[in-house]
């Protein structure tokens, strides 16, 4: 039984859903606890928010982040697995810093998602430079632009069985 944790960054993207599935497998195989994390910041940024703080505005955006994390867990897994010690966290801060702070021990595993062909990945770059734990990058499934566009505009009725 490993003492570390598997920390997975969840943004709701296809890559983060793949990372969530990979993190569950890693937690099961190693006996580690799973921590699914969504980092958030005020949309105007912390500096502008500090000039005119509004706790209701911050609570609203934290709630959006919490609902996104719940939806991502449901889409990727159905629910948190019962055979793994797992929890969800919503943390205010920049994603790279939050993930590095949570996966601070050498026996932790940090799991993130990645889209194929994306060169500009600031969170991944930050983790490569600052993470103290091992980092596993789970690739998102490759979908054509046409498919991605169609899925963004799909409704639940589009998937109903006809017959």
TrEMBL record:
> What Gene3D superfamilies has UniProt attached to this entry?
3.40.50.12370
Instruction: Give the Pfam families listed for this entry.
Output: Usp
Where the record annotates domain UspA, the positions are 4-141
Query: What domain of life does the native source organism fall in?
Result: Bacteria
Q: What is this protein called?
A: UspA domain-containing protein
Against InterPro entries, the record matches this protein to:
UspA
What SUPFAM superfamilies does this protein's entry cite? Adenine nucleotide alpha hydrolases-like
């Amino acid at each position: 039984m490993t003492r570390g944790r598997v920390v997975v960054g969840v943004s709701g993207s296809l890559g983060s859903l793949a990372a969530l599935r990979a993190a569950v497998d890693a937690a099961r195989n190693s006996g580690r606890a799973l921590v699914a994390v969504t980092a958030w910041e005020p949309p105007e940024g912390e500096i502008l928010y500090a000039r005119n703080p509004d706790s209701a505005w911050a609570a609203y955006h934290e709630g959006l982040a919490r609902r996104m994390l719940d939806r991502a867990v449901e889409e990727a897994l159905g629910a948190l697995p019962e055979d793994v010690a797992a929890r969800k966290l919503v943390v205010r801060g920049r994603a790279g810093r939050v993930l590095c702070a949570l996966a601070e021990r050498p026996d932790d595993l940090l799991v993130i998602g990645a889209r194929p062909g994306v060169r500009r990945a600031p969170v991944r770059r930050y983790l490569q430079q600052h993470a103290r734990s091992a980092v596993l990058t789970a690739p998102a499934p490759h979908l054509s632009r046409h498919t991605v566009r169609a899925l963004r505009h799909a409704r639940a009725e589009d998937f109903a069985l006809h017959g």
